[in-house]
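Can't paste images in this forum, so I'm doing it all in text. The chain is below; anyone willing to post the predicted C-alpha cells underneath?
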Amino acid sequence: MTLVRFIATLTSTAVRQMKFHQCRLYLFCLLALLAIPSTVSAVQFHTSHSDPIAPVILGMTGILFVALLGRFGARKLGLPSVLGELGMGILIGNLAYLFGFDLVIVLREGPEIFDTVENLLQGEAVETACMNALSSEKTECVLTLLQGPHGNELIQVAHALDVFSRYGVIFLLFMVGLRTSVKEMRQVGPDSLRVALIGVLLPFALGFVSSRLLIPDISLHTSLFLGAALGATSVGISVMVLQELKMDNTRVAHIILGAAVLDDILGLLLLAIVSGIVVSGGIEPLQILVVIVMTSMFLAGAVYLGPWLLKFIIYLVRNLDLMEAKLFISFLFVMLLAWMANLAGLATIIGAFTAGLIMHDAYFRHWGPESEHTVCIKDLIMPLEVILVPIFFVLMGIQVKLETFLDWQVVTLSAGLLFSAIVGKLVAGFGASRSTNRWAIGIGMLPRGEVGLIFAAIGKSLDVIDDALFSAVVLMVVLTTLLAPPLLKRSLQPGSD
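Text version of the structure:
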C-alpha cells in the first residue's frame, strides 16, 4: 500500500470513528505539522533580492505564520494563546535545528546575536564580534553561517526580529498598565497587599535557595535572577477563568486582581534591584538603595508629572482628529517613558508599564466627553500588541533548547524551580483573611505566563541565565500556566473553602 493510500485509509477510518469537531482539530494539527517544514524552508535564503528589506519581510511573515498556527491551536484546545505561540516556537525551533535550517540556528542564540550586531557596528571583524558575544562552543557554528553567502541576510533578519520582539514587550507592558489604574492601587485592601508581598518575596527566596542547593557552583547573580523570575505573576489567565465562572465580581476575584497590581509593581522593583546588582557586579547596600530610590523617584515623578506633560502635549495637537491624537500621543508617551526609564538605569518595561498606568481616555477632553469617543486607546494600541507580542513569544520558544534537558542537573533544577513557584504562590494565598477562599487566591496567583518569560529574556540578555537555565524557566512558566485554570475551577466549587 502506498503512503497516499495509507493516509487516505487512516483518515477515512478516523472520520467514521470521531466526532466532526475532533476530526477538525486533528486535521489542523496535521496541517500545522506539514506546514512547519514549508514555513521554515520559506525563510531559507537562496536567491538574491533587489530590495534589501525583502529577507526581513519574509522572515517576519514566517514567524507570524507560526504564531498564528500556535494561537489557533491553543484556542481550539482551550489554552491561553501565549502557550500556543510559545509551544510552536519550541517545536519549530528544535525541529528546524535538527534539519539544519540556517535562520533558526541563528535565532536560537537570541540576544547574543543582537550583541554580535552591536560589535559589528562598532567596527569589529566578524570573527571577533562573534567571539566577544557568543560562547566558544557556539562561535564556530554561527561564524560559519555568517561568513557564508547568505550571512548578511541572516543577520539582518535575526536583528530585525529581535528589535520587533523588544517593541512587543514594551507594548505588552503598556497594555498591562492600561488595564490598571492608580485609583485602584490606592484603594486596594490589606488582603491584597499581604498576598502580593508574600507572593513576590517567598518565591524569590525559595527560588534563590533551591538554585543554590541544586547547583552548588551557580553564580550569585544567576540565583538572584532565577528567584526574581519566580516572583512574577500573570493574572490574566486567572481572570479568564473567573469570568467564565461568572465570579469576576466576587471578593476572591478582587483580592487576586488587587494583589496582581501590586505584584507587578513589586516584581518590577525586584527586577530593577537584581539588574542593578548584576550590572554593578556585586551586592552593595548603597547600590541597592540607589536602585530603590531611582525606581521610586521615576515612578513618583512619572505618576505626578506625567499627567501635566500629557495635557500640555494634547493641547498642542488639539487640531488633529481624535484617532490621530490618541494613537500618536500614546505611542510617543510610552516610548518616551521607556527611554527615560533606561536613562535612569531601569528596564524599559518599567517605563512602559508606568506609561500605561498614567494614560487614559479622559485626558482627551478637547474632543468631547469620554463617553462620546468613537475609539479608545486600548483599541488603537491593540493591533500593535497583536502583531508584535507573538513575535516575542515565538522567539522565546525557538530559544528553548530541548537537548539541555538531557543533563540531569537541569532536570532537577527545573523540578526545584517548579516546586518553589507553586509553593510560594499557594502560601501567598494565606495572606488573605480567614473568611476568604485562601486556596483559590493562591492558585489565582500561580500562572507566570508572559511576565515570567520577560524576566527570563532580560536575564539572558544580561548573560546571567544560560541556555539550560532559560529552558528550565520556560518549562516552569508553561507548567504553572497549564496547572492554574483547572485547579482554580476546582477550588472555586461549592464547599471547597
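The longest helix spans residues 285-316. The domain at 174-491 is CATH 1.20.1530.20 (Na+/H+ antiporter like fold).
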